[in-house]
Design goal:
heterodimer, A: mainly beta, 4-stranded antiparallel β-sheet, 5 helices, 12% helix, globular, B: alpha+beta, 6-stranded mixed β-sheet, 29 helices, 11% strand, autophagy (chain B), Guanine nucleotide exchange protein SMCR8 (chain B), Folliculin/SMCR8_longin (chain B)
Chain lengths: 476, 786
């Protein structure tokens, strides 16, 4: 950690009256959780739609495109939603057991008659009924049922190789979209928890605390088998909780004990280990567990450490840390509202919004309607425009680049009655959250929605067209 | 207040005109006496002409329908009145004598020319000096056993208000005509059946007689041989003589029989012709057959009408006829006649008139702003909005757009009339088929006056199911038995307004049987709009206690009422939590506060008593909730919900809500202080509401519908214009609406926008479901204590 960053962080921590990091386990309970500013003037999410079509626990939600997302649930169904509507676009029924994972990929069909291959987005859903179903996203039809899986399907992952995908349960399977089981790899007996596709046609498979890398066959000519390349070392001490891509050349894994490891995806070696607790004792509350990491600008990494948040650089410096961000463990991190906020969702049922100390008197609600210069860097957008590109260069030259304004708590979105598992952000500034209470909530900017409704009514009443015709009438 | 005054003036005019434009049938002299008014007192002649009728000053307070029959034993008698207690202090029999004195059957061709004809209905308007005006509709039912085969009946609509009678005469006439049509079509079928039987009897008798005559000629002697062995031949010649006379008598009888048969056949022919000309409407053939067989086999339960059976001179035929009538009535007339009464029954002519005038302002319903079920302003009144079938878009001329202000203060409508309705003109193009969420619910109330509630309570007794009144409408619908579900058939699925809902649940709890016991007339009247087709006007229910009663004492008692009212007006859900033993008090408070609930959507805006913990989903539809508090407040209101609601703990008189910052409500409530009655307070409040509704109107038209501010345009224009962009709050500040008031105005406009979009979605193909978003207000709650 560079000295300047250390100083900056210390200053921040002093100012906020927070303790220094690395307290002994369990003591964090005493520290007061940060309070939400009164009236939350900067919280733009003033309108919600509650989507309560699922009758059981929702396992996950995944984004499909700019405005659609898929939710899979224990009620044996998967539902395609749009952020514009509070009713399902399409309900995918057919599974006979809880649907627990899903993925989306492109189905590519080469046709001799056509110059270009026919591409179609398909959905994959995996269920405890030991089948995988392939759905057409356009029609909602079930195109194929893959039954040879023999174990529960816990993970589905697009392999980034045309028409091939991987499914994980107890074993790792390689399938093609035609429904052929190409290869099965029997692992060490642990269930697979994560599969991540990395460049060069490789996949990383996380099972318990180990990570292994396999090579996916890239052309139909060669043997259609997964070729084991390497078992990554060192192992995590505890179960791996997340496996994310950091940049084109790095990926990151995090585990229950709090260790975050950044790996180089080319040579498959460890780049750096973050948040590593040296004198680690098994504590079943796992106060440092990292459920999710979120990379920003390919250079920075937000990590949900227990109930707190931390921001790391690829050098391993912790440039910001907030230990008691939530009342309970943070499960997921996401940039929302056009990157203006970092949303952290937690087991305490709330989603907290972090961002720059803006002008407090100017409410954020509806601010997207105003013109806003889009910054190049996500972090800058998140933390305000204080660092413009010129300044940034200057700062970089002076090696003072980590002196960034620290994110502050700007709002708290409370509407779920259980833990909030995942948050997604969409193009229209909608934030979608899914909770263990079985509902999905669309969070919208009330002012923006109001404007949209105005427009809709103008359209309904033909005010727009009337206006277009008006000038001619007035001239005549 | 305005309309209230207007109503009073009209009331005065009509009553005074009533005196001036009398139409006395009592005689010319009386007419003269009255027409030269004003006479000085001393000039008024002492002599008062006597009317032939007993001059007991008869009074009728409410309109009613009287059905009478010309009984062959006692003369004209009243059979039934609708409502059953109609004209309680009115000598109905005497009136029956009066209206049936004219034997309009004198024209009956059967008697005059001894040919049978089916007579048409006649109708007449009778005006009495006792301020009783009636539209009388005579019709005749046919009965084989009755004198001249006819039984004259008449239906009379009796009202003290002459103007009303004349203004709605057309409608009355058509309704009465359709009722009598139904009666007559059924009756003619029955009569024909009887005639067929009679004819068969006669033909048989004739055949037997012929046989008898023949055998009398040939076999008589042999018979006598056998019988009169001991009598000898002494009487033979004498017997021959009697035989001769019997024979001639028989032949004469045969001839007359033939004539009767011919008559019979003539009548049948006539009947057949007549019946062919009838259209039976919904009275289907199948129905009819079953009804006939029922009559024949006398499976029907004993008739409830005692007066009817008292004056029946004949047995079988008459019975079957009266039963037929009963059956017919059961099938048809209650619906039909009540359709008549629901329109104009028990409603003041002034109200009807006002309503007629104002009805144009109510459409399109989607752009109508109502607060506390009081019409405030229509945002698109008189706008030519035409729905084109293909695009489902509405063409409109902006220049025509104008605001129309409309008030229905309790003084004009709510208190004076017990029944509200919308005239036919209501279904304008904007709202075909008067969909849900529009105006059906406008005048439906959560509470049906105090006594309904009491009745429910009374019948419920200990098990207190009324508590469950707030269960979802779906549950209610599921548990409906066939009888009640029949009334639901035509109800659009989503149109459970508060009032309906309550009524249904009450119905359910009381059981369908007990419904007529409680308030037969009201119930019957109520069921009409739901069974009637959508072209029928929407009829709403009595409002015995006007909205907002007790507002004065509420304002006085709770110092924090301004914040509570602000929450209601700005669309924040207000929860009144109390332990179940205070349910009735909460009910009263809700009735008072209902005055401030904007909107008339199909959602349950007001839930008088909710027994489950509140959820976030509830916030989207409920705006004013009475909540059963079991033990602690936290148990029923989760912290997430608590944050976005205004909670009023009834027992501890504590209120958690964002404080009100603004001028509008302060001003309004200050004005209220100068008035001492609820009525005047409500008037003040509503006047103020209108002034604010005008602001909302301005905001809607200048800001929301302004294309210059459209979202898409903003993107096109350059950065300089961006700086000048007008946000909603800036705009509102320009029209002097700031802070809390801005929230109120924005919420009102939001209601209109949501209504319009919902209406649009409902009309789109396929109809899209409408779900309102939940607004989250992050403003911190303050705690207020009484």
């Amino acid at each position: 950690m560079s000295g300047a960053a250390e100083l900056a962080m210390a200053a921040i921590l002093r100012k906020k009256g927070r303790r220094n990091n690395k307290p002994s386990s369990g003591v964090t309970q005493e520290v007061e959780v940060e309070r939400v500013p009164e009236n939350q003037p900067q919280n733009p999410f003033t309108e919600i739609h509650i989507l309560a079509s699922h009758s059981d626990v929702i396992r996950t939600i995944i984004p499909l495109d700019g405005h659609r997302f898929l939710s899979v649930s224990d009620d044996h169904t998967a539902i395609v939603w749009s952020t514009n509507s509070s009713s399902p676009l399409c309900v995918l029924t057919g599974h006979t057991g809880p649907v627990i994972c899903s993925a989306t990929m492109m189905s590519v069909q080469h046709d001799e008659d056509r110059a270009y291959p026919l591409k179609e987005q398909v959905l994959l859903t995996g269920s405890l009924d030991k089948t995988i179903r392939v759905w057409s996203l356009d029609t909602g039809e079930c195109m194929r049922v893959l039954k040879d899986h023999f174990t529960y399907v816990k993970v589905l992952c697009d392999s980034c190789v045309e028409n091939l995908f991987c499914a994980g349960g107890t074993d790792l399977h390689l399938w093609n979209l035609e429904g052929d089981l190409l290869h099965t790899v029997i692992l060490n007996g642990e269930d697979i928890s994560h599969v991540l596709a990395i460049p060069h046609g490789r996949i990383v498979v996380a099972a318990a605390n180990t990570l292994e890398v396999f090579k996916v066959p890239t052309s139909p000519e060669i043997l259609q088998e997964l070729e084991k390349i390497k078992k990554l070392a060192p192992n995590h001490r505890e179960m791996i909780l997340s496996l994310e891509t950091l940049s084109g050349s790095h990926f990151v894994s995090s585990s229950l004990d709090g260790t975050i490891i950044i790996w180089n995806s080319t040579n498959l070696t460890m780049l750096i280990q973050l948040n590593h607790q040296k004198d680690y004792l098994v504590n079943h509350t796992y106060p440092y567990c990292v459920h999710h990491t979120l990379s920003i600008d390919q250079k920075f990494l937000f990590a949900a450490v227990g109930r707190g948040l931390a921001l790391y650089t690829l050098n391993g410096d912790c440039i910001w840390r907030r230990e008691n961000a939530h009342h309970s463990k943070i499960l997921y991190l996401c940039l929302v509202y056009n990157g203006m906020f970092l949303a952290s969702c937690s087991e305490d049922g709330s989603i907290r919004l972090w961002g720059a100390v803006g002008s407090m008197e100017q409410p954020t609600e509806g601010s997207m309607l105003l013109h806003k210069e889009i910054s190049d860097s996500s972090l800058e957008r998140l933390l305000g425009k204080s660092v413009n590109s010129k300044e940034k260069k200057r700062l970089l030259r002076k090696e003072d680049k980590y002196k960034i304004p620290s994110p502050v708590l700007l709002g708290e979105c409370m509407s779920h009655s259980g833990a909030v598992q995942k948050v997604l952000a969409f193009d229209d500034n909608t934030m979608v959250s899914c909770g263990s209470d079985g509902v999905i909530i669309l969070w919208k900017d009330g002012a923006q929605e109001s404007e949209l409704r105005n427009e809709q009514i103008r359209k309904i009443l033909h005010f727009n067209s009337v206006k277009d015709e008006m000038p001619q009438e007035s001239q005549s | 207040m305005l309309a209230g005054g207007y109503a009073e003036v009209v009331q005065y005019q009509t009553t005074s005109s009533d005196i001036a434009l009398f139409d006395a049938v009592g005689g010319e002299e009386e007419a003269f006496v009255h027409s030269v008014r004003p006479f000085p007192f001393h000039l008024i002649p002492a002599y008062q002409p006597v009317t032939p009728w007993p001059s007991t000053k008869q009074k009728i307070e409410k309109d009613f329908i009287l059905v009478c029959e010309f009984s062959e034993i006692v003369g004209p008698t009243a059979l039934i009145t609708i409502p059953s207690d109609g004209g309680r202090n009115f000598d109905k029999d005497m009136f029956a004598v009066k209206i049936m004195a004219v034997d309009y059957n004198a024209t009956n061709m059967l008697r005059c020319y001894s040919t049978f004809t089916v007579v048409e209905d006649t109708s007449v308007i009778i005006e009495d000096e006792e301020n009783i005006h009636a539209y009388v509709h005579h019709f005749t039912l046919y009965d084989l056993h009755a004198r001249g085969y006819v039984r004259p009946f008449c239906m009379a609509y009796i009202t003290p208000d002459k103007n009303k009678l004349f203004s709605y005469l057309e409608r009355l006439m058509s309704k009465f005509r359709s009722v009598s049509q139904l009666f007559r079509s059924g009756n003619l079928h029955l009569f024909k059946k009887d005639l067929d039987c009679r004819l068969a009897d006669l033909v048989f008798t004739k055949g037997a007689l012929c046989e008898d005559v023949k055998t009398g000629m040939t076999s008589d002697p042999t018979e006598e041989n056998q019988e009169d062995v001991d009598s000898g031949w002494v009487d033979l010649s004498e017997r021959n003589g009697t035989c001769e006379s019997t024979l001639t008598a028989n032949q004469r009888f045969k001839a007359s029989l033939q004539k009767i048969i011919n008559d019979c056949q003539d009548i049948l022919k006539e009947l057949q012709m007549k019946m062919a000309s009838f259209s039976f409407g919904d009275f289907s053939r199948k129905d009819h057959c079953s009804f006939l067989t029922k009559c024949k086999t006398k499976e029907l339960p004993s008739k409830p009408k005692q007066c009817c059976s008292k004056c029946l001179p004949y047995n079988s035929g008459y019975h079957s006829d009266s039963e037929a009538k009963e059956e017919l009535k059961r099938k048809t007339d209650l619906k039909q006649i009540n359709a008549v009464d629901s329109l104009i029954f028990c409603r003041d002519a002034v109200v009807l008139k006002l309503e007629q005038v104002e009805s144009s302002l109510i459409s399109p319903a989607a752009s109508l702003l109502t607060i506390g079920h009081t019409v405030e302003i229509n945002f698109l009144a008189n706008v030519n909005v035409q729905s084109s079938s293909q695009s489902l878009m509405w063409q409109q001329k902006r220049s025509e757009c104008s605001g129309n202000f409309l008030v229905e203060t309790p003084s004009s409508i709510t208190s004076e009339s017990s029944r509200q309705s919308f005239p036919l003109s209501y279904d304008a193009e904007f709202v075909p088929g008067s969909s849900a969420g529009s105006l059906d619910s406008l005048y439906y109330d959560v509470e049906e006056g105090e006594d309904e509630f009491e009745v429910g309570k009374f019948h419920e007794g200990e098990h207190g199911s009324w508590l469950e009144i707030s269960i979802s409408s779906d549950e209610v619908r599921c548990s409906m038995d066939s009888q009640t579900s029949q009334t639901l058939e035509r109800t659009p699925t989503s149109s459970f307004s508060d009032g309906e809902f309550e009524e249904l649940s009450l119905n359910r709890f009381l059981g369908p049987r007990s419904v007529p016991l409680t308030n037969g007339y009201d119930r019957v009247g109520l069921s009409v709009p739901r069974t009637s087709v959508s072209s029928e006007p929407v009829v709403s229910r009595c409002r015995k206690v006007p909205v907002g009663t007790g507002i004065k004492s509420f304002l006085h008692h709770y110092g924090f009422s301004i914040h509570l009212i602000y929450a209601l007006l700005s669309g924040r859900t207000v929860v009144i939590a109390a332990s179940p033993k205070h349910e009735k008090e909460v009910y009263r408070v809700i009735k008072t506060l209902r005055l401030f609930v904007p909107g008339h959507s199909d959602n349950q805006l007001i839930v008088p008593w909710h027994t489950k913990p509140l959820t976030m989903c509830d916030l989207s539809r409920m705006k004013l909730v009475g909540l059963a508090k079991t033990r602690s407040l936290q148990r029923i209101i989760p912290s997430t919900v608590f944050r976005f609601t205004t909670v009023f703990d009834f027992e501890s008189s504590t209120l958690w809500t964002p404080g009100y910052k603004g001028t509008f409500l302060t001003e309004t409530l200050n004005q209220c202080k100068h008035f001492h009655s609820d009525q005047s307070c409500i008037a003040v409040i509503e006047a103020m509401m209108i002034s604010y509704a005008a602001k909302a109107f301005t905001f809607y038209h200048t800001y929301c519908l302004n294309t210059l501010m459209s979202h898409s345009q903003k993107h096109k224009s350059d950065n300089h214009n961006m700086q000048n962009k007008l946000t909603a709050s800036v705009f509102l500040a320009k029209i002097n609406v700031v802070e809390g008031d801005a929230k109120i105005v924005q919420y009102w406009v939001d209601i209109i926008k949501q209504q319009q979009i919902a209406e649009f979605l409902r009309q789109s193909c396929p109809p899209a479901p409408v779900k309102n978003p939940i607004k989250l207000d992050y403003e911190m709650c303050n705690k207020y204590h009484h």
